[in-house]
Amino acid sequence: MDGHDEQSRPGIGDLAKDTVRNKVGVLMGEAGGRLLMRPPGGGREWEVDPGDIGPVTALEEMRARNSARNRMTRLGL
Question: Which of 19, 38, 52, 76 has its CA 20 to 30 A from that of 27?
């Protein structure tokens, strides 16, 4: 996670940004030196190189959380 100190580095369960794909997701874990992310409202995981993870802006976080709430509502949850 180059360019981030320990305090700003997203942890498991945190929202983070895949800077290569320009996607926000929840950091789910690590496998084989790569990080696993999932869309905030659920869905298919994708792999990310640790150096390609960055923090989310307040606007990105708000959009991600709103998107997750909307998905849960559509699913009746």
Answer: 76
